[in-house]
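Action item from last week, closing it out:
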Amino acid sequence: MTEKSPGHASIPATATATATAVRAAAAAAAVLTVAAGLGVRAVSGGEVAKYAGDALYTVLIHTLVVFLVPRVRPLTAAGTALAVSWAVELAQLTDLPAVLSRHSTAARLVLGSTFNAPDLFWYAVGAALAWAVHTRLTARRTLAHV
């Protein structure tokens, strides 16, 4: 059984169903990640909330990568999420994120405003966590189809 897309070769129905399931799981994971970030902020403050937020920021980017590219490998998704997180942090060495953050709450939430070297480590922690969960879920899904 195949599904036809306009202008594209036939795609097996199981691949389409798998991609849909992966996207649904990634969307749910993104919502849970945001909820976890808000929860950490609600119950703690200071460095715990800040660095947990940094790690969760990278986890969120990982879930968005998986949502956009459902067949992405865990290491590729984690590496992409880490690269984006580090790029955003390193951009804070310039004035651009701070200027944008003064004019937009969304920019402040996404780009931050001030470089903080320890954030780079916590982004790596988030990428490692996302990679581990994604790897485990991918292995479980593969075993279920054997």
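Closing note: Residues 19 and 70 are 5 Å apart (CA to CA).
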